[in-house]
Amino acid sequence: MTSTPRLIRADQLSSNTAQTSGMLRSAAISGDLVGAGELWMGRTVMAPGSASADHHHGDSETAIYVVSGEPVFAFRDPATGEIARLKARPGDFVWVPPHVPHREENPSAEADAVVVVARSTQEAIVVNLPRL
């Protein structure tokens, strides 16, 4: 089968993808939407003052680009056992290795946090977990 490049407009994103409470994921590039075989990409929006449930993405590596807001990425530091936080700003990138439990937090009282997410599989793998 031959494929050609595709343009996916912002209003064409699909929320029919794996979800975690406290955020809204919308798929843009996936097997279902464009026939991707190796990549999943989408947008996540977090409302002011919200935090996602703890989760991981299985064998998938996750790359995150911060579009707006100042999201915080919380995870348990394996060296200390303490909760560590990466405080990101627009223009920053965050990498989450496979199987690492984490959560996203939006400490702003006023602004959404919007990020673009890419994963190393076209499957939207989300394993929701108990609190870190």
Structure description:
The chain has 132 residues and is mainly beta. It has a single domain, classed as Jelly Rolls. It is 3% helix and 37% strand.
Total domains, how many? 1
Give the mean pLDDT: 90
Estimate what percentage of residues fall within beta strands. 35-45%
Tell me the helix content: under 10%
Number of continuous helical runs: 1
Tell me briefly what this model is.
The protein is mainly beta and 132 residues long. It contains one helix and ten strands, in the order βαβββββββββ.
Outline the secondary-structure elements:
Layout: E1 24-29, H1 31-34, E2 40-46, E3 55-56, E4 62-68, E5 72-76, E6 83-87, E7 93-96, E8 102-105, E9 113-119, E10 127-128
Antiparallel strand pairs: 1-2, 2-9, 3-10, 4-7, 4-9, 5-6, 5-8
Which terms would index this structure?
Jelly Rolls, 1 helix, 3-stranded antiparallel sheet, mainly beta, 10 strands, 5-stranded antiparallel sheet, 132 residues
